[in-house]
Prior knowledge:
By secondary structure, the protein is mainly α. The chain folds into four domains: 2-81, no CATH class; 94-190, no CATH class; 206-264, no CATH class; 273-307, no CATH class. The protein has 16 helices and no strands. The chain has helices at 2-7, 21-31, 37-42, 53-62, 74-81, 94-104, 113-120, 124-133, 139-144, 156-165, 170-177, 184-200, 213-220, 231-243, 253-259, 272-281. The longest helix has 17 residues, at 184-200. The N and C termini lie far apart (66 Å). The relative contact order is 0.06.
Amino acid sequence: xxxxxxxxxxxxxxxxxxxxxxxxxxxxxxxxxxxxxxxxxxxxxxxxxxxxxxxxxxxxxxxxxxxxxxxxxxxxxxxxxxxxxxxxxxxxxxxxxxxxxxxxxxxxxxxxxxxxxxxxxxxxxxxxxxxxxxxxxxxxxxxxxxxxxxxxxxxxxxxxxxxxxxxxxxxxxxxxxxxxxxxxxxxxxxxxxxxxxxxxxxxxxxxxxxxxxxxxxxxxxxxxxxxxxxxxxxxxxxxxxxxxxxxxxxxxxxxxxxxxxxxxxxxxxxxxxxxxxxxxxxxxxxxxxxxxxxxxxxxxxxxxxxx
Length: 307
């Protein structure tokens, strides 16, 4: 705790904006592997979703000194502690409470939508779900960080997992499971999605990060049980498609492999000028049937056509 007290304001040395020093200091210590980096990151905030005994002790001690290590005298502490605050009691349905939180979430460091949902639908389900999805180095990060956008501590992983399992009805799912004792169902679903991805696609590529894996798993999860399933053949097709210069959206290759829809690839199209040039070079003659056509009767395609 002594070391924590020494380091908690280290961000002052690197911050031009005083209110940013906790985040800067916390991130600096996180990269160095310091155990209490979250206490530094969240200290001094009147409200935080993160809580721990060391953080409470640090905030209490912090009231007794200013940023220059000068003691804050009792009368100054009293002025802080006796300051009158407006407190609002929010009543209504869970959906109404969530709308109210969104309305007032306009000052300071705004909470994300999932952070707001965690407050409104607090209970044993959220508590257990955060154990899997909401901490640095959490199980979801360990097995799925390559495929996920965002960070666990801002609830991006939890939001994505619930979005997948609920088919986009996040608040409905959280409301139904609010008082459930654990989030085992959610974790097992997420784990199944990640295992399925790794079984279908043998080689990881950066284009796989952030794809809608949950819906793809729901639709094609039985693919691996089909008699002609061959992950090595799938990898060969991906390699070939990755090399194709006419494919502008490489990320779309994975969805195309599964459902065969070319719209995911954003295949390069030809301008009217390019079509006219090719038409004149061929003298209006089709290379297949060798008949002559007007340009309005012809279609331009790649040398190796897409079917």
